[in-house]
TrEMBL record:
Residues 133-274 form the Nudix hydrolase domain. PROSITE patterns: NUDIX. PANTHER family: THIAMIN PYROPHOSPHOKINASE, THIAMIN PYROPHOSPHOKINASE 1. This is Nudix hydrolase domain-containing protein. The lineage of its organism: Eukaryota, Metazoa, Ecdysozoa, Arthropoda, Hexapoda. GO terms for molecular function: 8-oxo-dGDP phosphatase activity. Transmembrane segments: none annotated.
Length: 327
């Protein structure tokens, strides 16, 4: 196929490629190594992080094809404490810009979302190890009698550690240690947008989206649990926790342009696109790359980390000819 035969890439597909930049390129480049804990892959480690891990052989064992947390650490508490010691040393030494956003707020590290946690890690450090992160997003919208469907967006505070001053979905937040999905949604709705209980009762679960993004901070294999919340026309969200500068209610067309702009938080785009698809505003009729975009909203993060116990060399006929122990 020549370049002239290729289907042109729409603005939306370019954006979908952007928030999946690691999945579409870096993941297949082979430069990162599996991060293994208790015999299970829980993340990926980039070369810049591996270089630093070599200084801590009693904690991290760097092998040719994977990095392993010392298997002598047998339980959740010991693993968490030993990893935190290294991370705090890095933070004190000014290594890795992501650690400037240290929050004293931890995420659980698991082999799968529904399996017991192996240890916990400060949320600012999870991207250094490609840890799968989970969060909630609430699409707040209004059925305006004149403008039609309109969507509330927030502008993040200029003091936020990440994406300061960028536009974002109305409410979002990560799943921290000790909090469930619905619990987090309700908590964040109150803190970020002052949504009262009588309105929160109308919250509707709408599935999830997933992406695999990379920035200078690290790797972001993120899954967001999505909620829709229809709000009355006279309700105006207000912030309680200092993390939001302002809110704005936009009709669909204006909202889409805002999402496509360079001022919208890249890793929040999938939630907004998913909402517009589910509500029939982005369709196969008006978006030439519709199927590719839908696929890129659901990266298979639950199965993507399948570091094998053994690696086989494959002959030309497809049969395994040699098995090499990896762990």
């Amino acid at each position: 196929m020549t370049d002239s035969d290729k289907k042109p890439m729409s603005r939306l597909l370019k954006l979908a490629n952007k928030f999946n930049c690691f999945y579409l390129s870096g993941f297949h480049a082979g430069e990162c190594r599996a991060f293994v804990v208790d015999g299970q892959q829980v993340g990926l480690v980039r070369p810049d992080v591996m270089k630093e891990l070599l200084n801590y052989p009693q904690v991290f064992q760097v092998h040719p094809e994977y990095v392993q947390l010392n298997p002598a650490f047998r339980d959740y508490a010991e693993r968490s404490a030993r990893v935190e010691e290294v991370l705090r040393e890095w933070r004190a030494g000014g290594k890795f810009i992501t650690l400037r956003g240290w929050r004293e707020e931890c995420y659980e590290v698991r082999a799968q979302f529904n399996t017991p946690p192996l240890f916990k890690m400060d949320r600012s450090a999870t991207c250094l190890f490609g840890i799968r992160k989970y969060g909630v997003d609430i699409n707040g919208y209004v059925m305006d009698p004149v403008k039609g469907l309109s969507i509330w967006l927030q502008k993040r505070s200029p003091n936020k550690q990440t994406w300061p001053g960028y536009w974002d979905n109305m409410v979002s937040g990560g799943l921290s240690v000790g909090y469930g999905i619905n619990e987090t949604a309700i908590k964040e709705a109150g803190e970020e947008a002052s949504i009262p209980n009588n309105l929160i009762a109308k919250l509707k679960s709408a599935g999830c989206v997933s992406l695999f993004f990379e920035s200078e901070r690290g790797l972001f294999p993120n899954t967001e649990f999505v909620y829709d919340l229809e709000l009355p026309p006279d309700f105006v969200p207000s912030n309680n926790d200092g993390e939001v500068e302002t809110f704005e209610l936009l009709p669909v067309n204006e909202c889409l342009e805002r999402i496509l702009s360079s001022h919208f938080k890249t890793t929040s785009v999938p939630v907004a696109l998913d909402f517009l698809i589910r509500h029939g505003y982005i369709t196969a009729e008006n978006e030439p790359n519709f199927i590719e975009i839908v696929e890129l909203l659901h990266i298979p993060l639950q199965t993507i980390y399948n570091h094998p116990q053994k690696k086989c060399k494959i002959a030309a006929n497809g049969e395994a000819i040699e098995s090499l122990d990896r762990i």
